[in-house]
Amino acid sequence: MQSKLKMNKEVINAQSIFQDFLTLLFPNCCAGCQKALEKNEELICVECRANLPKTNFHQYGDQRVAQKFIGKISLRNAFAYLQFNKEGITQSILHELKYKNNQEVGELLARYFAQEIKELVSEIEFIVPVPLHHSKKLQRGYNQCDPIAKGFSQILEVPFAPDALIRNKATISQTRKSRSERQENVSNIFSVSDANIFKDKHILLVDDVLTTGATLEACAIPILEANCASLTIAVLATA
Ligand SMILES: [Zn+2]
User: Which domain holds residue 212?
Assistant: First the structure.
């Protein structure tokens, strides 16, 4: 018995030495600046975390994110955590999330963000990520918005539903069109898997980056048509 315990201990020691050796060869790098992370740092280094370009809109009641959707869709509120700047920390982190399979960093940022806006979204009953078209999901292997929804779900303590929304078309035409033509264009890109899931519920829709808002608008249409109680949007970054 004693020798078995001793052996287990030795195995654990060997594992931890091997882990240290691997870290030495392949250090975990910061998703923001690519520098090797210290042992006590998780995914983003202390410096990048301190320098995250937060919008802080929600702290000042700044409605500019929600204002993007006025006259298009009816929202309860809309929030954006970071400012998206080319060549900046945000771009680097979101690139890791979207193209390098660094899903953990998306989850981590979502947790930071959810902690900040928790009191403002206390009505939320479930969280829906913007879905990828199945062809794109097959190609990438994952939907980069799923870990964002998961991070929110952990902090808000409400479920997230990765398959509640379905993407029917892979792309959204961005050409300039009249309002009615655009509505027509975006109205059938997404659909809900089951309208009853959304009925009378307070929904949080999450995405990685907000640019024109066309994708979120297209997602919102079937959710609102399913008679949800309210719809709020949260994005990790805004352009
Ligand atoms: Zn860093």
Answer: 53-238
Asked, for residue 4, whether it belongs to a domain, the answer is no
Band of pLDDT at residue 178, cut at 50, 70 and 90:
low
* Residue 43: inside a domain: no
What are the C-alpha distances in Å from 42 to residues 31, 32, 66, 108?
A: 10, 12, 32, 9
**167 C-alpha to center of ligand 1: Å?**
34
In this prediction the pTM is 0.86
Instruction: Give the E-state strand segments of 112-154 in sequence order.
Output: 126-129
CATH number of 132's domain = 3.40.50.2020
> What is the CA(91)–ligand 1 centre distance, in A?
12
The string of pLDDT tens digits covering residues 95-109 is 999 999 999 999 999
How many domains would you assign to the chain?
1
